Amino acid sequence: MCTTCGCGHPDQVRIGELPHRHSDDDAQEYTTPNFSHSTFHFNKPTEPDDTQKRLLKIEQDVLGKNNRLADHNRAFFEKQHIFALNLVSSPGSGKTTLLTTTLNALKNDCTCYVIEGDQQTENDADRIRATGVPAIQVNTGKGCHLDAQMIGEAMVKLRPKADSILFIENVGNLVCPSEFDLGEKAKVVILSVTEGEDKPLKYPHMFAASGLMILNKVDLLPYLNFDVAQCIANAKRVNPSIEVIQLSATTEQGLGDWLNWLENQRKQG
Ligand SMILES: Nc1nc2c(ncn2[C@@H]2O[C@H](COP(=O)(O)OP(=O)(O)O)[C@@H](O)[C@H]2O)c(=O)[nH]1
Ligand SMILES: [Mg+2]
């Protein structure tokens, strides 16, 4: 269980079966320990016990508080005509590279700001600042996602102008950021072709929560066994209305589609 957001619940865990029992002679039997006072889910109670009820309450409180703060952020963004996007992905899919490429393309036409989320280091904010765009780094320590309060605190420091664009690069994680509304207009999930076309099926909540999937690093396709059509079909299976843009943040192939998407979304308000 994630210690920061309390996500996940033992009752939701399912341990599958081996389709065929293998016949290794030296296979070792594992014996389930009997922890009499444990909260492990091996001895699954039929009714939630006090600890589980408390955890559920904490999770509801955490998400409820986050949603209220996210609404507050959203109201601020709407009032100031700030177009806020929440970029989510696993680590290394190319969020910061996409952002630097995008900012270099946009910065003469509109005012942009970036909030960078990582557990540690100021590296990504430094990469953004090198483009001349103001960036606030949020380090979450053990936390695996940004939350609405962190965005509010970063906004106090950013002091953004009206009619601008705010890009939020979330902590690299395809799981928890899907649960946390930051007040953004949309989540954009970035999946790189080196990650495998099955990821929308394995992490459906993130793809269901996103309005756009950017399929990044398409310049590497000639060297990989990656089925683009299957990947898009997988994403549409969990979210039939998700839009898809194929792109390379390094060669800039497809960059125009992404810039057009941004412009259209901004126009729609
Ligand atoms: N070939 C290729 N590499 C990329 C592309 N985008 C990002 N990368 C590389 O992927 C690595 C991780 O990129 P980064 O932007 O730091 O990912 P992040 O962790 O999601 O922010 C870096 O070595 C980038 O140069 C791309 O479109 N094509
Ligand atoms: Mg990054």
**H/E element order:** HEHEHEHEEHHEHEH
Structural class: alpha/beta
Number of strands: 7
C-alpha-based Rg, rounded: 21 Å
Ligands bound here? guanosine-5'-diphosphate, magnesium ion
Q: What is the CATH fold-level name? A: Rossmann fold
Q: Flag low-confidence runs.
A: none
- Our measurement of the CA-to-CA distance between the termini, rounded to an integer number of angstroms, reads 37 Å
How many helix segments? 8
Average per-residue pLDDT, rounded, comes to: 91
Outline the structure in words:
- The protein is of the alpha/beta class and 269 residues long.
- It has one domain: P-loop containing nucleotide triphosphate hydrolases (Rossmann fold, 3-Layer(aba) Sandwich), CATH 3.40.50.300.
- Helices cover 35% and strands 14% of the residues.
- Strands 3-2-4-1-5-6-7 form a 7-stranded parallel sheet, sandwiched between helices.
- β2, α3 and β3 form a beta-alpha-beta unit.
- α1 packs parallel to α4.
- It is globular.
- The two termini are 37 Å apart.
- The chain binds guanosine-5'-diphosphate and magnesium ion.
